[in-house]
Fold:
Amino acid sequence: MTTLYSFRRCPYAMRARLGIVKSDKSVQLREIILKHKPESMLQASPKGTVPVLIINNGKVIDESLDIMTWALEDSELLLSTTNDMLLLIQENDGIFKSWLDKYKYADRYPDYPEIYYREQGELFLNKLEQRLATSPMLFSAQYSFADLAILPFIRQFAFVDIHWFRQSKYKNLQRWLFEFIESELFNSIMNKYPTWLDSHQEFIFPEQK
Ligand SMILES: N[C@@H](CCC(=O)N[C@@H](CS)C(=O)NCC(=O)O)C(=O)O
Structure:
């Protein structure tokens, strides 16, 4: 059986779980906490980030986008992934993620006030808003590889100050995000599990397949 080391609130682990839910695959999930990473996870992937997938043939995949690609192999969702989608994900993971971290932990970056970091992140929000003004999801009417990869990060950005986000000008982004948060898809990846380190309990994920 394939094992997934995961952390519930990590946006990278969330996108990996979204990919798995959208696939015909299931894994044995080990919920970890970042402060006490299991030895077996570090042995498989010394860089110490989640998610980490260990396939039953021993192969290790420790980058979230690669785990999505593994999960969705041969699926329509992967086959319809375009270069434009990958470029948008790259922007999310690069420049946007770095502003997101500074906005979220603004007290650790006293060079500028929180609002400055938020405004930098808004350059990416604006870009997504423009797309979502003309289609229900980022690239069409359906969730694409890019929607699944990016949504967890926009959720994190929105929840730094949800009051601000709710009254912001990003109406289409709000629709897209809240529709996702209320969906069965999102709920299916957010179940709470005891940490594997204490219990050594594993859980089949997704639960109903
Ligand atoms: N490029 C990696 C990044 C994964 C990552 O940075 N995950 C964070 C948690 S959200 C982590 O494990 N950080 C290590 C730590 O906090 O000790 C991926 O896409 O999988």
Notes: The chain has a mean pLDDT of 96.
